[in-house]
Design a protein that fits this description.
Helices cover 31% and strands 12% of the residues. The chain has seven helices and six strands; from the N terminus they run ααββαβαβαβααβ. It has a four-stranded parallel beta sheet with strand order 3-4-5-6, with no helix packed on it. The protein is globular, with a radius of gyration of 18 Å. Belongs to the glycosyltransferase 29 family.
Length: 162
């Protein structure tokens, strides 16, 4: 059954990855001095220093377990769907790749967001790697209110360069 498959998958994830504790970098799971190997540049590592450590939350900011969640992509499949109510109903909504949430879309995709992902390619393409103007990025992030932005900062060296 689906319930059995979901339980098996959950157990396998917990055994291999411990997502409840390792989903995000925190002060509890990433002490100062720890070396992190970039998963996209296997010959390089980054050592957590005081300035990086100070950016980490003390522990996971999410109340676990999540009772009901929605994961929403940004491929346009929800256009003209009117699914906003169903998407905003769960207590946790995760959105992928900084999707637009302006008023023209919210009837279809909702507006509630607790976590939004931001792939490096999105930062590079839409925000010019934050090199020239960070104002556009900051202005775009306001639509997500107090959501957490989940970025793979330790995939490539460019994610940790000042």
């Amino acid at each position: 059954t689906n319930q059995t498959s979901a339980s098996l998958f959950r157990r396998q994830m917990e055994d291999c990855c411990d997502p409840a504790h390792l989903f995000a970098m925190t002060k509890m799971n990433s002490p100062m001095g720890k070396s992190l190997w970039y998963d996209g540049e296997l010959l390089y590592s980054f050592t957590i220093d005081n300035s990086t450590y100070s950016l980490f939350p003390q522990a996971t900011p999410f109340q676990l377990p999540l009772k009901k969640c929605a994961v929403v992509g940004n491929g346009g499949i929800l256009k003209m769907s009117g699914c906003a109510r169903q998407i905003d109903e769960p207590n946790f909504v995760m959105r992928c790749n900084l999707p637009p949430l302006s008023s023209e879309y919210t009837r279809d995709v909702g507006s509630k967001t607790q976590l939004v992902t931001a792939n490096p390619s999105i930062i590079r393409q839409r925000f010019e790697n934050l090199l020239w103007s960070r104002k556009k990025f900051v202005d775009n992030m306001k639509i997500y209110n107090h959501s957490y932005i989940y970025m793979p900062a330790f995939s490539m060296k460019t994610g940790t360069e000042p």
